[in-house]
Write a structure and sequence with these properties.
The protein has 129 residues and is of the alpha+beta class. It is 22% helix and 20% strand. It has a five-stranded antiparallel sheet with strand order 1-2-3-5-4. The chain binds guanosine-5'-monophosphate (5GP) and zinc ion. The site of zinc ion has 6 residues, from helix 1.
């Protein structure tokens, strides 16, 4: 799709370099990273919703996620990761090509990291209080 930035990256028509690639998937750094090494894994073929990505492509994307994790561990030595997918506008999706966020986390990068992705709805996140 010509007007999809992630299709352009997957096709090599962009200044964004690929971090890793596989048969059906590519990975690249997020342009506006929330932490050092924040990467995205996508299927080469355009689908908006990860649940519409074919099982074979999905398996391939999750395998590439492992590869990218190894690479990020070597390059940035993070202490943990958040893995996330925003599906549809209500969940905060802003780029209409399904993608898996792999967000390296570093001890002390926020004051209290407990809850992780629960913070998508901040007032519900701290269930332990
Ligand atoms: P979403 O909100 O759809 O889950 O995430 C979209 C992600 O894509 C955001 O984290 C944003 O920083 C990233 N992003 C948006 N446009 C570009 C781009 O042109 N290149 C790259 N590498 N990342 C992008
Ligand atoms: Zn696309």
């Amino acid at each position: 799709m010509d007007d999809c930035p992630f299709c352009q990256i997957a096709a090599g028509n962009s200044d964004t370099e690929l971090v890793a690639e596989s048969a059906h998937s590519v990975a690249f750094y997020d342009r506006y990273p929330v932490s050092e090494g924040h990467a995205l894994v996508i299927a080469r073929r355009h689908e908006a919703d990860l649940f519409d990505v074919d099982p074979e492509e999905r398996t391939d994307a999750w395998a590439l996620l492992d590869t990218v994790r190894e690479l990020l561990l070597e390059r940035f030595n993070p202490d943990g990761f958040n893995i996330g997918v925003n599906t549809n506008e209500a969940a905060g999706q802003t780029v209409d090509h399904a993608h898996i966020h792999l967000i390296p986390r570093y001890l002390g990068d926020v004051e209290d990291p407990r809850g992780g992705i629960r913070w998508v709805i901040p007032e519900k996140a701290p269930y332990w209080d």
